[in-house]
Amino acid sequence: MTKKPSLEKRSVGRAGAVGLTRERVVEAAIALIDDEGIVGFSVRALARRLNVYPAALYWHVGGAKSDLLAEISGALIASLMTPSDLPDDWRDTIRLLFRRFRARVHEHPRAAPLLGPHIRSNGAPNAPWVEIILTALTQAGFEDQALIDAFNSVVGALEGYITMELAADGATEGSEWIETFNAGLDALDPAQFPLVTRHLPQMYNRSFVMRWKSGNVAPLGDGYNFLIETLILGLEAQAKRGRNRELDAATPTADG
User: What dihedral angle (degrees, nearest 10) is formed by the CA atoms of 36, 37, 42, 45?
Assistant: First the structure.
């Protein structure tokens, strides 16, 4: 009964002696992922890098590895924008947020796989940019459930594209895997896949699915900008549709 608290006390004391903080743990974790990727990341490896016991890390980032991964995910994007950054036009707010987000994640491409599955459990640190998105969408005319639906659409587009862009493993040039990949594309029958074969030269390593290079080597920026403008047009159309429904509901009918 006395050993476990004793071990924890020694771990915490060691952490305090080297000035361990939540921010330092997260910073070191991101650096470890930058160096080793998600595959090479572990709590033990991070503890070795910080020269502390693994138990000491959990005193700063929660009681499980998932808590640590959520902290990493939140740290990548928590300070993207502040209220003082808000443009006058909500559309420009969306554009600015998307571009800053992509630039930030491209600084740490190996951490991109964390964004989808681990952002879900890190609510409070993400509150600043969540507030900014909600502000922009409220300015656009969304409210109640439509506001939440619009918010989910924005965040899904924001994280989904970047996660996919940086998901490719980046196979080695001239490797057997790439030769097999290319051979499969070369063997496609134009009669069966007329559009794929016609546009393949433009799509090869410049589009999702038809590529083997990661987005940190072959970025897909044009498609990202297209996504931003398409999303804004869609939000405008949905907000207008909502306003029209409200007007229709408020307009007296001939029978009324």
Answer: 10
| pLDDT of residue 191 exceeding 90 | yes
Contact 138, 147 (CB under 8 A): yes
Cα 241 versus chain centre, distance:
29
Q: Which residue has the tokens 């930058």?
A: 34
> Residue 160 pLDDT more than 50?
yes
CA distance 35 to 167: 16
Residue 220 in this model has a pLDDT that exceeds 70: yes
pLDDT of residue 250: 67
pTM of the model: 0.81
pLDDT in tens, 127-157: 788 889 999 999 999 999 999 999 999 999 9
Q: What is the 3-state secondary structure (H, E, C) of 195-248?
A: HHHHHHHHHCCCCCCCCCCCCCCCCCHHHHHHHHHHHHHHHHHHHHHHHHHHHH
Could you tell me which of 35, 225, 193 has the C-alpha nearest to residue 233?
Answer: 225
The interaxial angle of helices 90-107 and 144-165, nearest 10 deg, is 30
Q: What's the residue count for the chain?
A: 256
Q: How far apart are CA 168 and CA 210, in angstroms?
A: 11
